[in-house]
C-alpha cells in the first residue's frame, strides 16, 4: 500500500528541554511573544517559568492565563484580538490540549480574521499557509498529543456542539515535550488524559486510514500506557512512568494525525458538548463499548491490542474491552454517563450530533443513529 508521512512539527523530547526555549525563540527571530496558559499553571509557577525563559530572548512577553477546560470559541477570539493588539510574533502554548488548541485557533483567527467556526471540519484549503505567526507548544499533560496534531477542538456552548478545525497549517512549529512538567499533574487529570492517549492509539490502530507507520506508533503507545498509566496515577513522582506516558502521548498523537480517530471520539465530543463532561472522562466511559461494537470487523487488531496491553504489569488478561474497562476502574474513572451529569433525555441529541462527526468516516464499522443511540443508552 502507498501512504504518506507528514510531521511538520519539530519535536524535542526529554527531561529539562523546556530550558531550550530561549534558543528556540532566537532561532525564530521573535521579539514579541505571548504565553497562553490556564490559571492553575500560573499558580503552580510552571507558566511563570516559561515567561521568564521567554524574556531571555524576547523584548516583550505577554501572558494570557484564562484558558478554561474544553475551551470556548469566544476564548480563541479573545486571544486572537490580544495578539493583534500586541503585534505578537510567536505564541507559547503552555498546558494541556486546551491551552495548545486555543493558541492554534488564535493564530489562525489573528492572521486570517473572521469567526473560528468558518474553519470547522476537514477543510484544509480554507487555511492558506504557512501562517506567519509562529507557535511553540509546551505540553504539561500526557494526553491530547495536541503538540503535534493538525487538529483543534473548541466548545460552542451557544449551540451545544464541539467545533473541530483541521489543517496541517494548524500544527505547532516547535514542540518542547518535557516530562518533568507533568509531575505535578493531579491524579484525576493524569487518569483522564492517560485514557485519552489509549483511545488515540486504539482508534488510530483500527482506523480505515491506518498504515504500517501509524500502526507502529500506536502499538508503542499502547505498550507504554499498559505498563505505566496506573503507576503514573498512583505516584505522580514516578519519573519513568511520567516519561513513558509523555512519550506515549506523543506517539499516539502522530499516529492519529495520520490515521484519524473514530466512534469513541465522535460520541465523547457530543457528550462533552451537552453536559460539560471533561473530554478524557467521556472517552473513558465510551471506549470499552465502542471496542465491543467494532470488534466483529477488526478481530485480529483488537486481539493484538489486548496482547500488548496485557504485557503491562497491572492490567491482567481478557479481551481488549475488558482490559480497558479494568484499567479505567483502576485509575478511578466513572463508567456510566449518568454518573457525570448526562440526563437520559439528552441521549437522543447526543446520538444525532455524533452522526455529524467527520470521525465516523474513519471508524472501522459504520454506525447509524439507531446504533449510536443503542450504544449510549447502554452506557447510561
Short account of what is shown:
The protein folds into two domains: 10-181, Rossmann fold, CATH 3.40.50; 186-379, Dehydroquinate synthase-like, alpha domain. It is 50% helix and 12% strand. It contains 14 helices and nine strands.
Q: Note the total helix count.
A: 14
Roughly what fraction of the amino acids lie in strands? 5-15%
Q: Could you say what the CATH topology of the largest domain is called?
A: Dehydroquinate synthase-like, alpha domain
Give the overall shape, derived from the CA principal axes.
Answer: globular
What pattern of helices and strands is seen along the backbone?
EHEHHEHEHEEEEEHHHHHHHHH
Biggest beta sheet attributes: 6 strands, parallel
Mean pLDDT: 93
Please give the CATH class of the largest domain.
Mainly Alpha
**Which class best fits the helix and strand makeup?**
alpha/beta
Give the helix level as a range of percent: 40-55%
Instruction: Outline the low-pLDDT stretches.
Output: none
CATH architecture of the largest domain: Up-down Bundle
Question: What's the total count of β strands?
Answer: 9
CATH superfamily membership of the largest domain: Dehydroquinate synthase-like - alpha domain
* Rg on CA atoms, Å: 19 Å
State the separation between the terminal residues, measured CA to CA: 41 Å
Total of domains: 2
Keywords: NAD, Oxidoreductase
Domain Fe-containing alcohol dehydrogenase-like C-terminal: 190-379
Pfam families: ADH_Fe_C, Fe-ADH
Protein name: Iron-containing alcohol dehydrogenase
